[in-house]
Amino acid sequence: MTIQIRPQAISDLKVREFQMLIDGQWTAGAEGKTIERLAPSHGVLVSRYQSATKADAERAIAAARKAFDFGPWPKMTGGERSNILLKAADLIAQRSDELAYLDAIEAGKPISQCRGELGGAVDIWRYAAALARNLHGESYNTLGEGTMGVVLREAIGVVSIITPWNFPFLIVGQKLPFALAAGCTAVVKPSELTSGSTLLLGEILMEAGVPEGVVNIIVGTGAEVGAVMTSHPDVDMVSFTGSTAVGRLTMTNAAQTLKKVSLELGGKNPQIVFPDANLDEFIDAAVFGAWFNAGECCNAGSRLILHKDIARDVTARIAELSAKVKVGDPLDPSTQVGAIITPQHLEKIEAYVSAASEGGVTVSHAGGTLDLGMGQYMAPTILSGVTRDMAVAKEEVFGPVLSVLTFETLDEAIQIANAVDYGLSAGVWSSNFDTCMTIGRRVRAGTIWMNTFMDGTPELPFGGYRQSGLGRELGKHAVEDYTETKTLNMHIGSRTGWWMPR
Ligand code: NDP
């Protein structure tokens, strides 16, 4: 089902002008260049940002370094930092309509979904605030009469945070509040396509009482600004979410000064379905998993691995339900699938579908590109008869394209699931406990959903195996990621000498 776009919904929009935040000041870039963002849904200018240069990135890193080495933030108690993060969470909640609207028009995401993501983000900020009071090390009083050991957790220092365009506000929330809870300072670079809500977060953090220089937010291309942020010697850690290709580059850059690196990268996530599953529930989850965020989602359930006895019927039912999914104007509250991020990205998705159909795959629900008169849109597209060696079975398409494969035995299903370079998440559907547990143990992915898909909560760690990433976000250890451990090895009483035994 197509929802027509409403030009009038955006016609009275005032283009938002953003500066960048360096050392507590809103500032223009060194060269006065700007980046303009057109709404992917309406094709009109919605935001203009100051574009950072290498010099601006260095200025932001210097500010974060100074704030870490000499400022109050790392020295505050966990309780004090926690209170500021809680205040920030309240302010995010208060401004959530404005933030959601910015994400909707810059990323082309449905407004109702953006509101949901804002609620999720507030919850994560509160969770991180709670962890700030719980960061502690270990003590060892079992090392003999002469020795006691204490292991301290210390903030790691300056963190570069680089985020993608698909969940602009949510993803910065999976990193920044945890880094701040630990006492770190940060330089943040959102995607140049969707920087608005992250820049508004800068205003919120200043109002909440985060001292100047602790959070610096710059906008610019990854090639120019991101490269400085990942290689500069004054940066202690890089936390990156984005494509596997750029993740690899990030790691290479960071390796020159042996920075700690946390990477959240791409996925090609399978849902394995057995005939004894509750198929009504699965079909709903399949449609949600594939089309949510127009499939521009690291966790998208983009590969269905269906038992051959049910494949035909299940695929037909998924196609039937997919035809009812509302695609179109992200500003319409009933829209379920919004716009594709850029015309270039739409071309890339189309190329995958064309290559698959030339390779003999059946395009069983031929959604394809939609011409709505403005912006760029694509309807849900299902490819059946996909085999595991095809590009659409192995590579991240990052659009509303679902590949359907089949299996006969449990072992074969696991082999197909593991036959890609990624390992972010997977789903299994069966009413048999043993089947679910076997899949849960043997599929190599950071999250396995059992009889559900794409649920999440701040308590549960998230991240990928293999080329889906390195490290985990969220969960009770998320703050520890932004720390170093230091051992205090303490001697009690007189010490036995090396040269002159006493
Ligand atoms: P990219 O890798 O293209 O970009 C991610 C970020 O990296 C952007 O801010 C980008 O800047 C920046 N960047 C680009 N080049 C460099 C560089 N040389 N050095 C440092 N930074 C650089 O990803 P997309 O924005 O296209 O996002 C989509 C990808 O993100 C998908 O692969 C998806 O799977 C992944 N992702 C993973 C998630 C996870 O949690 N595992 C969650 C969400 C997305 P700019 O674009 O402004 O130039």
Profile the largest sheet.
Answer: 7 strands, mixed
- Principal-axis shape equals globular
Structural class: alpha/beta
Beta-strand fraction estimate = 15-25%
* Full CATH superfamily name of the largest domain: Aldehyde Dehydrogenase, Chain A, domain 1
Q: Supply the number of structural domains.
A: 2
CATH architecture of the largest domain: 3-Layer(aba) Sandwich
Number of strands: 25
Terminal CA distance reads: 87 Å
* The level-1 CATH class of the largest domain: Alpha Beta
Which fold name fills CATH's third level, the topology of the largest domain? Aldehyde Dehydrogenase, Chain A, domain 1
Number of helices, where a helix is a run of at least 4 consecutive DSSP H or I residues: 16
Q: Going across the biggest sheet, name each strand in turn.
A: 17-20-21-15-14-22-23
Mean pLDDT: 95
List the ligand species.
Answer: NADPH dihydro-nicotinamide-adenine-dinucleotide phosphate
Rg, nearest Å: 24 Å
Tags for this model:
502 residues; alpha/beta; Aldehyde Dehydrogenase, Chain A, domain 1; Aldehyde Dehydrogenase, Chain A, domain 2; 2 domains; 25 strands; binds NADPH dihydro-nicotinamide-adenine-dinucleotide phosphate
Task: Describe this structure as you would to a colleague.
The chain has 502 residues and is α/β, with parallel strands linked by helices. 37% of the residues lie in helices and 22% in strands. Strands 17-20-21-15-14-22-23 form a seven-stranded mixed beta sheet, sandwiched between helices. Strands 11-10-9-12-13-24 form a six-stranded mixed beta sheet, with helices on both faces. Helix 3 (78-94) packs across helix 8 (196-208) and helix 9 packs across helix 10. It is globular, with a radius of gyration of 24 Å. It starts with a strand and ends in an 11-residue tail after the last strand. NADPH dihydro-nicotinamide-adenine-dinucleotide phosphate is lined by residues 162-167, 171, 189, 191-192, 221-223, 226-227, 230, 241-243, 246, 249-250, 264-267, 298, 396, 398, 424, 464, 469. NADPH dihydro-nicotinamide-adenine-dinucleotide phosphate binds at residues 162-167, 171, 189, 191-192, 221-223, 226-227, 230, 241-243, 246, 249-250, 264-267, 298, 396, 398, 424, 464, 469.
